[in-house]
Design brief:
With 268 residues, the protein is α/β, with parallel strands linked by helices. The chain contains 7 helices and 11 strands. The strands form 2 sheets. It has a 6-stranded mixed beta sheet, with helices on one face. Strands 3-2-1-10-11 form a 5-stranded mixed beta sheet. It starts with a helix and ends with a strand. About 8% of the residues have low confidence.
Length: 268
């Protein structure tokens, strides 16, 4: 029979060797396997190997947060769709920016038949969430080209940076839009739309004007408001699409071709 001090030592020993299991001293610690690192880069490598077709077809979903069962059902629904090239996650992967949450959602999303990419959401920045996101996925702002399209992912979570004028990084966005020698159609993805109260009002006009000034912009995509919405908010020719949350059990299928696009709402 073990003594009380022996039981305490045994418990501590189990805790120390189980940082990725049940026991965890600090919920904010970041412990990742190699397979859980640089997911953005790894999935972009998969996407650019997909044969390019005249028509691009992808899924836009988001705000998985605490809805693990619903995200599992999303994956089941998405895998039944035809001719999907990849999936884009609109952010708020997690609820509290905890690494465990990011890993739980990734474990679910790994069952997709398609590669998936993410943009960071405001919930993902809580605590040291942005550090966890960078280590697990990659840069907060990034872009990649596929076929006739350039996708630009930008951190638009102004409130989490104290509305200090730094977020979104508009100079970076301008440089990305300008760096398009092949005149690919550009699609800009963020989490918080510029007309939301959490977006820095001092940057809203410049952000919207930057998008409107790009002759190659096709449309722009967001989550955050947990609702399907689409509109030309600023009467400047830029179409804004928003997807709903996993809690509301919906997503968008977006089909693109040279002179247009089709946006379908799916409920599961």
């Amino acid at each position: 029979m073990r003594t009380f001090p022996q039981l305490i030592i045994l418990f501590l020993g189990i805790s120390l060797i189980s940082c990725d299991g049940i026991f965890q001293f600090n919920p904010n610690q970041i412990v990742l396997k190699e397979s859980q690192r640089n997911l953005t880069g790894k999935n972009i490598e998969k996407i650019v190997k997909i044969p390019v077709k005249d028509t691009l077809r992808f899924i836009f979903m988001g705000d998985s947060q605490r809805w693990y069962d619903e995200t599992t059902h999303f994956v089941e629904s998405a895998n039944k769709q035809r001719a999907i090239d990849f999936v884009l996650h609109a952010g708020d992967i997690s609820d509290f920016g905890i690494t465990k949450e990011l890993k739980w959602i990734n474990d679910i999303m790994k069952d997709l038949k398609y590669p998936y990419l993410t943009v960071i959401g405001n919930h993902d920045i809580v605590a040291n969430g942005s550090d966890a996101y960078v280590r697990m996925f990659g840069p907060l702002d990034y872009s990649f080209g596929y076929g006739d399209y350039k996708f630009i992912f930008i951190n638009t979570n102004s409130l989490e940076y104290g509305l200090d004028g730094s977020t979104p990084n508009i100079p970076w966005l301008k440089s990305q839009l300008a760096d398009n020698p092949d005149k690919k159609q550009t699609i800009v993805i963020g989490h918080v739309p510029p007309f939301d109260a959490d977006f820095d009002k001092n940057l809203e006009e410049e952000y919207a004007a930057t998008l409107a000034a790009d002759p190659n912009l096709k449309f722009t995509l967001y989550g955050h408001q947990h609702a399907f919405k689409e509109s030309e908010y600023y009467n400047d020719g830029v179409q804004y699409y928003q997807t709903t949350s996993m809690g509301d059990r919906g997503y968008l299928i977006i089909t693109c071709w040279k002179d247009g696009q089709k946006v379908e709402r799916v409920e599961f």
